């Protein structure tokens, strides 16, 4: 059964440009694949476990090839719930704005929670092996400025390169991006134009076959 996890990394609800664009993607994918199950994960309303000393120690336990000790299990249950939700999906739609040249803090927090050894990656004899292989990942992103190919501030985009490294690390080397920019620095009319164009463009990312 095809299952899509929609990770929402903008807190702006109906005002979010990013969510406006990804809604068009979702509408199209539902049309093409009516039996698709959609799980929505709003990173601003969903509880994410703090990664304090005790919780982080579990990561090192796993790296050493041992099991999570009994006293850590209640805290790790929350982490494993998030990991299982991510791993249960064969399609990931990530809706994220750029914040301070990179990803919003709740999205980084989420990755710090779920990217755990022997769950999402494995250090084997051949080096790192990603364990999320086979997933299709789509990223819809909006940015206030313009970081596209010929822009003088292209190198300030630490969002797309960071996400690419993360997804490659967990075994997905080919995520598909749609970045809409500049949403703020070009004025309201350009913003509207970009949104109208984006609503059509993101539909084209939807695959015929899942
Ligand atoms: C906290 C914060 C930080 C931001 N930092 C940047 C930035 O570094 N570069 C940029 O181009 N836009 C930045 N923006 C603008 C957003 O990326 C832009 O408005 C985007 O379209 C917002 O997406 P949303 O409507 O889906 O929330 C920032 C916005 C916020 C709220």
Structure description:
The strands form two sheets. A five-stranded parallel sheet has the order 2-1-3-6-7, sandwiched between helices. A two-stranded antiparallel ribbon has the order 4-5. Helix content is 38%, strand content 19%. The model has no long low-confidence stretch (mean pLDDT 97). The chain has helices at residues 17-32, 53-63, 73-88, 105-114, 160-169, 188-204; strands at residues 3-8, 37-42, 91-97, 121-124, 127-130, 136-142, 176-180. The protein is an alpha/beta fold and 210 residues long. The radius of gyration is 18 Å and the shape is globular. The protein has one domain: Rossmann fold, CATH 3.40.50. Helix 1 packs parallel to helix 6 (188-204). Flavin mononucleotide (FMN) binds at residues 10, 12, 16-19, 97-101, 142-145, 183-184.
Strands of the widest sheet, in order across it, are 2-1-3-6-7
What is the helical fraction, as a range of percent? 25-40%
Could you tell me the strand content as a percent range? 15-25%
Please indicate the count of domains.
Answer: 1
CATH topology: Rossmann fold
Query: What gyration radius follows from the Cα positions, in whole Å?
Result: 18 Å
CATH first level:
Alpha Beta
User: CATH superfamily, please?
Assistant: Flavodoxin domain
- Second-tier CATH architecture: 3-Layer(aba) Sandwich
The H-and-E topology, N to C, reads as: EHEHHEHEEEHEH
Q: Quick check: average pLDDT?
A: 97
Give the number of helices: 6
């Amino acid at each position: 059964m095809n299952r899509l996890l929609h990770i929402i990394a903008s807190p702006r609800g109906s005002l979010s440009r990013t969510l406006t664009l990804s809604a068009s993607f979702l509408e199209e994918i539902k049309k093409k694949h009516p039996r698709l199950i959609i799980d929505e994960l709003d990173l601003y309303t969903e509880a994410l476990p703090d990664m304090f000393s005790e919780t982080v120690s579990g990561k090192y336990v796993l790296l050493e090839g041992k099991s999570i000790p009994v006293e850590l299990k209640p805290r790790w249950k929350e982490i494993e719930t998030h990991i299982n939700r991510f791993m249960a999906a064969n399609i990931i739609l990530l809706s994220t704005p750029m914040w301070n040249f990179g990803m919003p803090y709740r999205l980084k927090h989420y990755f710090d929670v779920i990217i755990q050894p022997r769950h999402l990656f494995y250090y084997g004899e051949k080096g790192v092996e990603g364990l999320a292989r086979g997933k299709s990942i789509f990223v819809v992103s909006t940015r206030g400025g313009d970081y596209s190919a010929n822009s003088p501030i292209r190198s300030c985009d630490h969002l797309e390169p960071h996400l690419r490294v993360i997804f490659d690390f967990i075994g997905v080397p080919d995520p598909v991006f749609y970045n809409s920019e500049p949403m703020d620095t070009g004025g309201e009319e350009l913003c509207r134009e970009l949104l109208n164009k984006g609503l059509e463009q993101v539909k084209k990312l939807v695959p015929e076959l899942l």
